[in-house]
Amino acid sequence: MFSEEKKSKNYGSIFLYCFFCFVLIVEVARFAKPYYNLQNLMETEATVEEGFLAVEDSEKLPCRLLSRPSVSVPSQDQQKLSQAVTQETRTRPPNSYCVKFQSFITMAKQVKENGGKYESRPFSVGGYNWTFIIYPNSNIPSGSGGYVSLYLRIDNSTLITNPKDVYADITFLTYKSSTDKYQSYQETEAQRFHLFRQQWGQLTFLPIVYFENPGYGYSFDGGSVVFGIDINIVKPFENWEVFSNEQNIRDPIFEWRLTKFSTLFHDSYTSDSFSSGGRNWALKLYPNGVGNATGNSLSLYLLSASNEKGYVEAKLRVIDQIQSNHFEKKVAAWPNATENGWGFDRFLPFADIKNTSKGYLVNDTLKLEVQIFSFSKTDFFSHQSSAFFPISYGDSI
Ligand SMILES: *[C@@H]1O[C@H](CO)[C@@H](O)[C@H](O)[C@H]1NC(C)=O
Ligand SMILES: *[C@@H]1O[C@H](CO)[C@@H](O)[C@H](O)[C@H]1NC(C)=O
Ligand SMILES: *[C@@H]1O[C@H](CO)[C@@H](O)[C@H](O)[C@H]1NC(C)=O
Ligand SMILES: *[C@@H]1O[C@H](CO)[C@@H](O)[C@H](O)[C@H]1NC(C)=O
Ligand SMILES: *[C@@H]1O[C@H](CO)[C@@H](O)[C@H](O)[C@H]1NC(C)=O
Ligand SMILES: *[C@@H]1O[C@H](CO)[C@@H](O)[C@H](O)[C@H]1NC(C)=O
C-alpha cells in the first residue's frame, strides 16, 4: 500500500502520510510506556520521512536466516527495563546472534498461539548457551503496551551443574534498511544472570508499528525485519595484587666484618645473604669505589637476594670500633643504583677510613652494618578453580 503511494511520487499523499505518522507517534508517546523521552521521539519522527523516501533501496541481507520457529514455555521471570539506556546507530553488525523474519506481520500472527513469543534456537556465547526471545504483539508480556519486547535467556543446564553468576553486557539491535544501519539500545550496566534469574530484556524496545509499517525504515523487502543481539560476557578479575609496607622488621640488623681490608683486590665483594623481615638480602661493597667514586670513596649497597624492586628505608653504617661514633647514611628510595639495589656510590671517603682516630679500620678490619626499617612489598593473587591462593610474593613498581 505504502510502496504504491511511493511509486506514484504523489507528494501530497507523502505529506499526508508524514502528518499521519507524526500524529501516530505522538499518540504512541502518550499511551504507551516509552523509555525514552519526547525529544528522542521527535528525532525519530524526523527520520521517518527520510525512511519513507528510502524504502526501496535495500536489497541487502544483513543477517543470515538461521532460525526456525520453536515452541517453548512462556516465561515468568520478566524484568522491566530500567532508565539507564543508551541509544546509538552503527554499521557494525550484532556480535552474537541475529533473527530475520521474512514477514514480521505473519510471524506475529503465528506466535499468538505460542504464548505470543518467538524463541530462537540456542546459540553459544562465552561458554553458555542462550536463546533470543522476541515478543511481536501488543501487551505481551503484559505492560509492554504497543512495543516489541526483546529478551535474552540463558540455558540453565550449565548453571544447574555449576551455580554461579554470569555478567553480560547486552545490546539489542534492529536493522534499519532505510539508513543501512543498526539501531541499538543498550543497558549501561552489565546484567547478572544466575540460576534464579535466567532471563533479561527490554519490555519496551521499539513500537510495534515501526516494524509493521515500512515507512519507518525497519521493515524492508516486503515486510522483513531483523533483530540482533550483542552479548559480551564480563568475567570478574582472576588475578590481583596487594601493595603494602612491611614495617616491624624481624632481625633488622646485619653486621658484615671484613678482615685484611687492605689486601682486598677485587672490584666488589658481596656478603653472605641474610634474612631480615622474612626476606633475603646482602650487602655489596666496592672497596675502591665505583663510577665517579672510583679511587675516592667506598661504595656500599643493600641488595635484594631475590632481585625484588620496591621502596626500602634503611641505614648503612661503618662501625667506629673505638668510640662507637659510627658513620651512617640513610637510604629511603626505590632501587636507585642500577644493578646495585639501594645505596651510595660515594659512601665514605678513603681519607676517613685511613684516619685511625675515627676507628673505622682497626687491625685492618672493617665492620659494616645495615639496619632495615621498612620495605614495600606486592603480593600477587590468583583465583582459579575457585580457591584463593597467592601465586608469588614480591615487589613490583
Ligand atoms: C550448548 O548446546 C549444545 C547443543 O544443544 C550442547 O552440545 C552444548 O553442550 C551446550 N553447551 C553448554 C555450555 O550448555
Ligand atoms: C531450566 O530451564 C527449563 C526450561 O527453560 C525450565 O523448565 C526449568 O525449570 C529450569 N530449571 C531450573 C532449575 O530453573
Ligand atoms: C659523574 O660526575 C659527572 C661530573 O661531576 C656527572 O656529570 C655525572 O652525572 C656523574 N656520574 C654519575 C654516575 O654520578
Ligand atoms: C639513592 O637514594 C638516596 C636517598 O634515599 C640518595 O642519597 C643516594 O645518593 C641515591 N643513590 C644513588 C646511587 O643515586
Ligand atoms: C681525623 O679525625 C679526627 C676526628 O674526627 C679529626 O679531628 C682529624 O682532623 C682527622 N684527621 C685528618 C687528617 O683528616
Ligand atoms: C688482629 O688480627 C689478627 C688476624 O687478622 C689477629 O690474630 C689479632 O689478634 C688481631 N689483633 C687485635 C688486637 O684484634
From TrEMBL:
<dbReference type="InterPro" id="IPR002083">
    <property type="entry name" value="MATH/TRAF_dom"/>
</dbReference>
<keyword id="KW-0472">Membrane</keyword>
<feature type="domain" description="MATH">
    <location>
        <begin position="251"/>
        <end position="372"/>
    </location>
</feature>
<feature type="transmembrane region" description="Helical">
    <location>
        <begin position="12"/>
        <end position="32"/>
    </location>
</feature>
<keyword id="KW-1133">Transmembrane helix</keyword>
<protein>
    <submittedName>
        <fullName>TRAF-like</fullName>
    </submittedName>
</protein>
<keyword id="KW-0812">Transmembrane</keyword>
<dbReference type="Pfam" id="PF22486">
    <property type="entry name" value="MATH_2"/>
</dbReference>
<feature type="domain" description="MATH">
    <location>
        <begin position="94"/>
        <end position="231"/>
    </location>
</feature>
